[in-house]
Amino acid sequence: MANPGYGKRSAPDQRPRTAHDFAHLPPREAAVAAYLDRLPDGADISVKTLAKQLPYGQCALRTALNRLQREGHLRRGREQLTTKSGSCQWITRSWFSRTARGDDWWAAFTRGDVPQEPPDRQRPNRSRAHILLAALGRSAPALSLSDAECTRLAPLLTPWFERGATDETVVHVLTAGLPVPVHSPAALVHSRLTSKLPPERPAPRPALRILECAKCGVPGRPEALPGGVCGGCRDEREPVLLATLLPAPVIHAHAAEIRAAMTQKRQEGTPV
Fold this sequence. Notes:
Elements: E1 8-10, H1 27-38, H2 47-53, H3 58-70, E2 74-82, E3 88-96, H4 103-111, H5 123-134, H6 136-139, H7 147-153, H8 158-162, H9 167-175, H10 185-195, E4 208-212, E5 219-220, H11 242-245, H12 248-268
Parallel strand pairs: 1-3
Antiparallel strand pairs: 2-3, 2-4, 4-5
Helix pairs in contact: 1-3, 2-3, 5-7
């Protein structure tokens, strides 16, 4: 594993794993991709570390990772995180996607525009809700529901799950302080699911991300890095000045760091 906060990060909205995810890649690249895909988030996927685990040298692995970038499975860059103290810190990231992505998708990802869950993944929530309601009778026999009642009430649980409620939380809300007797279990469950719905959680602020060239490491806008490689390294044009590629927040952060260092040197009496 890499140091806390670093290492592999899985891209969102990936298709389920199959045996043919990397069939379009050469054998070596497919083997490396399959290995990366099964590593947990936070794993060290640097060339040096991979060379200790895989039967390939560092040069071969570097070539394989560059191929994965061109095919849309990998991007390197940095992401701005807010610490507990409220300060901002730039963290090196290596994002891996089992599902091959185009440059447009990676550009949207850096802006935080990519949805975390695709629409067709709402079905597991309904199934989960039906199972939870059907099992209520085990915790509270007075709340035993029929299959038809579970089907009718299950959609009411979707907003609970979307707002972060766990199964244990829902069961506690539905079973605590039951009247004696319960004349209509379905009506009581319906009433509690609608009247005790927790508040919406504030939408998380999209993370600020930038991508870097796979060859020279220069940061830049996604449209300047098709396939994860800058124009200078593709020999398409003269290298672009770094300042023109850096987004304003990055420039401001670097400027603040320089000013803080200069202030500290003055306080210490060290010539600037």
